């Protein structure tokens, strides 16, 4: 088993403000935006360990990142230790800062394959995967989990120590059961229990929709760091507010919103072919266009964006609507 040295880059993950990996949302451009706003570390979208083993083009594209994103981890999912072993060996030479194992995704397709949250019901498989990763790389290996499969099947009190013994250097915990999916309140007491039982740093995750929500999550759980997911979509400024401790810093001016969207579009265009660019951009746009008067109608227009000219028109209208909202 390889040994790793905890360095400053890894500490920015374990004790900082991390952008959570979210399939279809946290691509390279958005990760760069969040780093500029104050996220101390980011993680790739989920990458299939089996796909990397088979040299899948789609899986390899998800490994794309810009140096500005560092420190960055790659998140792998799957169910076979051998796939993780080969994937870990492959990504170790790609300048990532850590490797994260997904044992928390609740999506049916992932769970039915024996991956994601399903691993919480198969601890021997999960420990074998952690062992496989730690045996193939000197990079820190981390694990993303939930608090259990269901209230009737919470994670074992001993799980953090078991994972640490196999080589896990940190654990990120989403404060819901798999049975909760993304509904209901985050169960802070259960995260706090995992923090108490863990010999390695724990990063708390779940429902940090605002600066005050995020600060309350870390205060309530005693976690070493915070992982922000859906609360950052359309609102990367949440990281700025958390860094300063001032909620108002998470409320950008209308022209700033437009400027950030243009920047995200520019970066996306560097690696997404134009034939596919606007299809991908629409989903990102919808994250920014919500929560203000006139948003519903503008969202209807945004789903039809098909050119730079369309985008310019949408953003001009967005800026005017945000200015109106700000002064009412």
Describe the structure.
The chain has 328 residues and is an alpha/beta fold. The protein folds into two domains: 8-250, TIM Barrel; 254-326. 46% of the residues lie in helices and 15% in strands. The protein is built from 15 helices and ten strands. It has helices at residues 8-14, 28-37, 49-53, 57-61, 81-91, 108-112, 123-136, 159-165, 188-197, 211-221, 237-244, 254-269, 274-288, 295-302, 308-326, and strands spanning 17-19, 41-43, 47-48, 72-77, 98-103, 141-150, 153-154, 168-177, 202-205, 225-228. An eight-stranded parallel barrel has the order 1-2-4-5-6-8-9-10, surrounded by eight helices. Strand 8 (168-177), helix 9 (188-197) and strand 9 form a beta-alpha-beta unit. Helix 14 (295-302) packs antiparallel against helix 15 (308-326). It is globular and about 55 Å long.
Distance between the termini: 61 Å
How helix-rich are the residues, as a percent range? Answer: 40-55%
Order of helices and strands: HEHEEHHEHEHHEEHEHEHEHHHHH
The percent range for strand residues is 15-25%
Strand order, main sheet: write it out: 1-2-4-5-6-8-9-10
How many domain units? 2
In CATH terms, what is the architecture of the largest domain?
Alpha-Beta Barrel
Q: Decide which structural class fits the backbone.
A: alpha/beta
Q: What do we call the CATH homologous superfamily of the largest domain?
A: Aldolase class I
Average pLDDT, rounded to a whole number, is: 94
The CATH topology annotation of the largest domain reads as: TIM Barrel
Please give the radius of gyration in angstroms: 20 Å
Overall geometric form: globular
The biggest sheet amounts to: 8 strands, parallel, barrel
Number of strands: 10
């Amino acid at each position: 088993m390889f040994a790793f040295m905890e360095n400053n880059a890894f500490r920015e993950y374990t004790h900082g403000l991390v952008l959570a990996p979210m399939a279809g949302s946290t691509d390279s451009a958005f990760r760069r935006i969040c780093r500029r706003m104050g996220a101390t570390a980011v993680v790739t979208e989920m990458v299939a360990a089996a796909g990397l083993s088979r040299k899948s083009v789609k899986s390899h594209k998800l490994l794309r990142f810009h140096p500005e994103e560092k420190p960055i981890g790659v998140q792998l999912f799957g169910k076979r230790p051998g796939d993780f072993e080969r994937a870990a060996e492959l990504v170790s030479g790609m300048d990532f800062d850590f490797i994260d194992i997904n044992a928390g995704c609740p999506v049916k397709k992932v769970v039915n394959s024996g991956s994601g949250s399903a691993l919480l019901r198969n601890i021997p498989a999960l420990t074998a995967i952690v062992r496989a990763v730690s045996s193939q790389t000197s990079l820190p290996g981390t694990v993303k989990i939930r608090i259990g499969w269901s209230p009737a099947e919470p994670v074992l009190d001993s799980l953090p120590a078991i994972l640490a013994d196999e080589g896990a250097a940190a654990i990120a915990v989403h404060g819901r059961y798999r049975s909760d999916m993304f509904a209901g309140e985050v169960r802070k007491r259960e995260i706090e229990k995992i923090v108490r039982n863990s010999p390695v740093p724990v990063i708390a995750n779940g429902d940090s929709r605002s600066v005050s929500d995020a600060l309350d999550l870390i205060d309530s759980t005693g976690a070493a760091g915070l992982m922000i997911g859906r609360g950052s979509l359309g609102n990367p400024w949440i990281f700025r507010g958390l860094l300063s401790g001032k909620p108002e810093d998470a409320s950008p001016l209308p022209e700033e919103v437009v400027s950030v969207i243009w920047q995200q579009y520019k970066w996306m265009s560097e690696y997404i072919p134009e034939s596919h660019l606007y299809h991908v951009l629409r989903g990102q746009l919808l994250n920014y266009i919500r929560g203000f008067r006139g948003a519903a109608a503008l969202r209807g227009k945004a789903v039809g964006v098909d050119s730079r000219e369309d985008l310019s028109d949408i953003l001009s209208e967005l800026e005017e609507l945000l200015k109106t909202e700000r002064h009412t």
